[in-house]
Amino acid sequence: MTRLAAVVGLALVLAGCAALTRWDPPDVHVVQRGDTLFQIAFKHRLDWRDVAAWNGLGNAHRIYPGQELRLSPPGGARASRPAAGSATAPSRPASNSATTARRPAGAAASVPRGPAPAWGWPVRGPLLWRFGESRRNPTGIGIGGTEGAEVRAAADGEVVYSGSGLIGYGQLIIVQHSDTFLSAYGYNETLKVSEGERVKSGQVIALMGRGPADVPLLHFEIRVEGKPADPVRFLPSQ
Predict the structure, then answer these.
(1) For the segment 142-151, what is each residue's pLDDT rounded down to a tens digit?
(2) How many whole angstroms separate alpha carbon 179 and alpha carbon 98?
(3) Which residues of 87-125 are buried (b: 16+ CB within 10 A; e: fewer)?
(4) Residue 126 and residue 7: Cα distance in Å, rounded?
(5) For the chain, which residues make up each domain, given as ranges?
(6) Is 112-233 in the same CATH topology as 26-73+92-104?
(7) Which of 42, 82, 121, 143 is paired with 62 by a 20 to 30 Å CA distance?
(8) Exposure on the CB side of residue 104, measured as CA atoms within 13 A
(9) What whole-number distance in Å separates Cα of residue 171 and Cα of residue 187?
(10) Which CATH number applies to 112-233?
């Protein structure tokens, strides 16, 4: 009964109406020490390649503290993006493992462009909220479980973010699987991998922590060219 009450309480706190609000990023992001291009693009629900192109960053994709990055095309209007759109297929310093000056932010030459990965569930557990249902985290799904449970990479890829610099995700890991696909794992208790590390599908990358309403859960996202997509559309049946 206690667990049921906790889950019901979480649903009341997080579940919103079915209609999704629209997301309009600000015009400029001022780079903070520790920021990476992936982190900035993820926060503003943009494709990192677009941000690099709009700012003429070149192949190195280097950014520096105090730099102002455009978040829209130069001289052009940008259409509003859905907060959690249907895919056709949050600025504090980032983690200590990579600083802005030392790492080519967003460089991913080792990750090839290719088809959608063969996805697997990062954890097994009940869905606490579906894509678009949570007012706090509408861009992914909430998967219930046990605090300290192993969180696994949903597909092969490279860790492009590992830290707690994005507000609203707790300790977060972002994995790039190709030029098109990213996955994100939020509200972890412990992070087991570092930025730049290659991971295999099913590899333990974190331990589950507690999310909103102090309930053990994993917030899981899949991004397609920077846009949030419903993970359930890609994952196999549980």
Answers:
(1) 999 999 999 9
(2) 21
(3) beeebebbbebbbbeebbbbbbeebeeeeebebebbbeb
(4) 10
(5) 26-73+92-104, 112-233
(6) no
(7) 82
(8) 10
(9) 5
(10) 2.70.70.10
